[in-house]
Amino acid sequence: MESTKQSMDFQLPRRLQGLQPTLIRQFFERALPDSINFGLGEPDLPTPDFLRQEAARIATEEQNGYTSHPGLPALRTLIAEQYPHRNLPMTGVVMTCGSQEAMTDAFMCCIDEGDEVLLPDPSFPAYDACTRIAQGKPVYYRMPADTEFAFDISHFKSQITKKTKAAVVISPSNPTGKIMTPDDYRQIAEVLEGTGIWLLSDEIYSDLYFGERPRSASEFYERTIIISGLSKSLSMTGWRLGWAACSDARMMEAIQVLHGFTTVCASTITQKASLLAWTDEAEAAKAHAREVYKKRGEFLVKLFADELGLKATAPEGAFYTMLDVRSLGDDIEIAEKCLQNRVVTVPGVAFGQEAKGFLRISFCNTEERMAEGVRRMKEALK
Ligand SMILES: Cc1ncc(COP(=O)(O)O)c(C=O)c1O
């Protein structure tokens, strides 16, 4: 008989080798006590009271077993209705544990070993990680810093090869706060039409916008998988409610099966309470969040100009701005100096080479805390 003895050393499977916690987390976890947090993208506004009350009622009055794997039919129907242009049946939506799970599931269901995935540079580092977990190869298209990180169709197009299996778009963007225009999406659709390439559209910030409501990529390109959730717009990060939605029935079937084996179902209490997430009360809470973040973004960009003499991108949505520190040196060193003076920021390079020389600043803080943060940055950078 052949020896079945294996090494006793821990061996990470090849597909997971090289996966690291993001620089966002690495900086946050080293924060000194009483730091001002410009680092994490976590809303500081309270979760609306009517949602808390409803969740408390559901937890105390009702039995909360599993829901079906893809989630409560009433909730899936409500979400399908958010994308009327796709005329989605309820089965076109799967509820997940936050949009992060929807994202991982979607990558796993469309990427095969060696497939190339087009990712924006800069963008949320999870796309790179999800591509690698699915054994794909990340290929970056530039959102050039010199045009305030606007979409550039010529570079996007130039990165497509025979191996391209999927492309990712995010709007409003983490980390830049920029929004894709309808023209950007039209150009993408024109390039992708007939190629079979999947478009993974991260729309987690779609309710947080400061001008025109952002459009969904799915309005322009049918083979789009929408990834979204309630974490950011209703300050529900810890409630873990997200979804994947797509008009391709086989894709949704695949996502549903994988989701069943990874998490079974999203929290039943959260799903039931989330039935209130599109009521007038909820829409008023989202509108309030938009107002607050818009005002804070303007306040912070002005403060950076007045106090530090530095330019930050004008946020169009989400709660991020990119502070241009290229005149001061290396972004990791600058973020480190800020960290030592009790201000958490994220070096731009955490999101891609195009953001090198920038700091991503999130404005999930009161104006008073942000003013104190900028004061500490000034002190650190003199
Ligand atoms: C761009 C982007 N997508 C997805 C997520 C995941 O959010 P959640 O899983 O809470 O829905 C985040 C969280 O920071 C994000 O910034």
Question: What is the topology?
Answer:
Elements: H1 23-29, E1 36-37, H2 49-61, H3 73-80, E2 93-96, H4 98-110, E3 116-121, H5 126-133, E4 137-142, H6 153-158, E5 164-170, H7 182-192, E6 198-202, E7 224-229, E8 242-245, H8 249-262, H9 268-273, H10 280-308, E9 320-324, H11 331-340, E10 343-344, E11 346-347, E12 358-362, H12 367-381
Parallel strand pairs: 1-10, 3-4, 3-5, 5-6, 6-7
Antiparallel strand pairs: 2-8, 7-8, 9-12, 11-12
Helix pairs in contact: 4-5, 4-8, 10-12, 11-12
The structure holds pyridoxal-5'-phosphate.
Pyridoxal-5'-phosphate is lined by residues 41, 98-100, 124, 170, 174, 202, 204, 229, 231, 237, 242.
Can you characterise this structure?
The protein is of the alpha/beta class. The chain folds into two domains: about 20-45 and about 280-380, Aspartate Aminotransferase, domain 1 (Alpha-Beta Complex); about 65-275, 3-Layer(aba) Sandwich (Aspartate Aminotransferase, domain 2), CATH 3.40.640.10. It is about 35% helix and about 15% strand. The chain has twelve helices and twelve strands. Strands 2-8-7-6-5-3-4 form a seven-stranded mixed sheet, sandwiched between helices. Helix 7 links the parallel strand 5 (about 165-170) and strand 6. Helix 4 crosses helix 8 (about 250-260) and helix 10 packs parallel to helix 12 (about 365-380). It is globular, with a radius of gyration of 21 Å. The termini are far apart. The model has no long low-confidence stretch (mean pLDDT about 95). The structure holds pyridoxal-5'-phosphate. Pyridoxal-5'-phosphate binds near residues 98, 170, 202, 229 and 242. The site of pyridoxal-5'-phosphate has 13 residues, from helix 4.
